[in-house]
Amino acid sequence: MPTSVPVVAIPIVDTSASMSQSGYVAITVIDTSAFLSNALQGDYIGVASYDTGGRVTYGLSLVDSNLSQATAAANAVRALSFNGSCTNMGGGLQTAVSMLSGAPSGLNKGLVLLSDGYQNCGTNPIPLPAGCPPVYACAMGPNSDQNLMQQISSQSHGTYYYAPYVYNMMQIYNQIRAQSPSTTLTANQYKNAVPYDFLLIPATISAGNDLGQFSVVWSDASIPYVNGQPGMNQISVTLVNPAGQVLTPSPTLQGGGYVVFNIPNPAVGQWYIQIEYGGTQPQGLTGGAFEFSPSGNAAMIEMHAEVPQTIKAGSTLPVSVSLTEDGKPMSGQVIHTTLTKPSISIRNALSQYAHLINNVVLPEDVADRVSGDRADLAKLAYLHNAHLPTVDLLPHVKQSLFMAQGSDGKYMLSIPDTAQAGSYNLQFEVTGVSAKSGTPFSRSHLVSVLVTD
Q: Beta partners for 302?
């Protein structure tokens, strides 16, 4: 089933060797493949990659009713090598922008830029290439250049995102997918499954939608999906509809580490993504759910989160969320908010770990490209990666926050504790009832705010 507003999406994947050193390769391949597999008929997808220069990994293609282009693009991502000797973000952006020449005008176009490090060779990404559409720039982990990624997103009229840990990437991809006007993200949860675990991820489908999309992405591509009871080292994903019936539909698309179900004319109400895991080691899982209304019969329930793009460390971070239905303010919703923030800034980490950083010897190919402050940053990155997973030298903390609804209908909160510079993530999970249809709905939204020294 096509969407009413097709999208044009091109992930731009960092294939420098630091991605391997940071342990980001496996999950980046899985999550990028799963993101491409969320495409619907009528969308355009392509893939670019970069290290010393930019490359077309999968040419921009119109997705047909068989979704074969999504499978081919995912296969191209799985064939990538992550051993490039430097990070040329500008080259990757230029390649992706040139790929857009094959897309019709008037469509909702966007680039997804991924990087775990700093621009250190080739073309500077700023100023942006001519004709650059909105860039959804994702800084991967605390050793990434969060300032540059925020600038790229801001100047392109895109959105900045930060992945505190590698397992957060799929939540960000789900949020980016929801930027299309025709796409609503109703659930976006990360869970950690222990051996022989049973998990339920709730996802409410509201009235009038023509298609529901449910996906599960896990961190080990060698663990296969099965339809039904899982055996040893298998994952089973089924759906529970609002009537309580367990459904075992055939996947629309599946690959190493993910499965996607497209359900036409989904029943209104509370669905569950049901996961059974028969593995021997803990497994990270991200469950996502979207709803689509090409017919236009669904109520326009829109959620807007207002946060500053950047603030100075030590300042209060103001947050407000508003919900409207067909343009009219809503009230009486429940908003669960989770804040993820750094425990220590990069500047403070450089000072606190100076005695360890001084003993780090960078590989010759890295040392040749960095000097001064950049050399210390590279040494901190090596030190951080060397201590994982036993000790996290650059940890993050989570806390739940309460949002109160004001007289203007907006839900508000203030975050006073921004002493540590870095990126602060806010995840909003909303549940409520539509005044128009009298049926339940849910919304999920993720924002990142850069706190600077």
A: 324
Tell me the two tokens of residue 401.
């926050």
- The CATH homologous superfamily of the domain defined by 301-343+396-452: Immunoglobulins (2.60.40.10)
Residue-wise pLDDT for 68-105, tens only, equals 999 999 999 999 999 999 999 999 999 999 999 989 98
Fold for the domain defined by 7-176: Rossmann fold (3.40.50)
The reply to whether 301-343+396-452 shares the fold of 184-292 is: no
Q: What are 100's two structure tokens?
A: 């857009």
SS percent in the chain: helix, strand, coil, step 5: 20, 40, 40
Query: What is d(CA 268, CA 271) in angstroms, rounded to the nearest whole number?
Result: 8
3-state class of 416 per DSSP? coil
Q: What is the pTM assigned to this prediction?
A: 0.95
Regions in the chain scoring below 70 on pLDDT: 1-4, 367-368, 371
Both tokens of 400, joined, read 């739940």
> Taking the CB of residue 340, how many other CB atoms lie within 10 A of it?
19
CATH of domain 184-292: 2.60.120.380
CA angle (322, 328, 334) in 5-degree steps: 40
In the block, which residue shows the tokens 């980016």? 176
